[in-house]
Specification:
By secondary structure, the protein is an all-alpha fold. It contains ten helices and two strands. The chain is elongated.
Length: 244
């Protein structure tokens, strides 16, 4: 049962720690990764960022070598950190995967109506009424999480191939490395596109501020849970699930 008023527990401390560990690693990996792309046609920010970062770390090829080491070290740390989290919090990981890959009746309607409200206004998004009730994650969060999980697997696997190519893979594996570069770049682009929306919805959108604060406190107000995650709150109150 949940209290009639006040705060409701939503995140365990381990979930909060892995969230911000993931965010910090992604920030470093994105910046250093973009700094490694000298080709202006491939780098969405052009040549200025690679030039600036390389200059910061000594300039020229020496600066590029430092960037590569940073990217590789943080990439391995990120991968090991995620694997360690899966090992120590397997139950939470199973809950997360089950929730994000479970598409319930009303989820797609929620996504379409929410997108219409955000882009063209409430008049074209089902009026001012309530959106279809959502579970622990709304459909927008599920879509981003699905892209992050699948994209993260591709990024991790291709990243290890690229790391191996820098250390010991023979020249005969150039075809594999070429595919790894392409898939790595595309997967990062996919996740980054979703990340921009995720950051806006979580940190900028006023209605999601309680959800953002919960990534520090671990709790959300009951009225927020009722409005944004009604199915989850119902399950908690009835004792039929909703807990990790």
């Amino acid at each position: 049962m949940t209290p009639a008023n006040g705060e409701i527990k939503r995140h365990d401390p381990s979930d909060i720690r892995i969230h911000w560990f993931n965010a910090a690693c992604w920030l470093v990996l994105l910046v250093s990764g973009l700094g490694l792309i000298k080709n202006e046609k491939l780098n969405p920010l052009g040549a200025w960022l690679p030039d600036a970062l390389r200059a910061l770390f000594g300039g020229g090829s020496a600066g590029g070598a430092v960037l590569l080491v940073i990217h590789e070290v943080v990439g391995v740390a990120w991968l090991l950190g995620m694997l360690a989290y899966l090992g120590v919090n397997a139950g939470g990981a199973r809950f997360f995967l089950r929730e994000i890959f479970s598409i319930r009746p009303g989820d797609l309607a929620w996504l379409v109506r929410k997108m219409l409200r955000m882009t063209v206004g409430p008049k074209f998004g089902g009026g001012g009424g309530e959106l279809p009730p959502q579970g622990y994650y709304n459909m927008g969060q599920k879509a981003f999480a699905q892209a992050s999980v699948l994209g993260g697997i591709v990024i991790g696997v291709t990243g290890m191939v690229l790391l191996a190519s820098d250390k010991f893979l023979p020249a005969s594996m150039a075809g594999l490395v070429g595919w790894a570069v392409t898939l790595h770049y595309l997967a990062v682009g996919l996740v980054f596109a979703g990340l921009l929306v995720h950051v806006y919805m979580a940190a900028v959108s006023p209605e999601e501020k309680p959800g953002f604060r919960s990534m520090f406190t671990g709790t959300v107000p009951r009225d927020y849970a009722r409005h944004h995650h009604g199915l989850w709150l119902d399950a908690l109150e009835k004792g039929t699930g909703g807990e990790k």
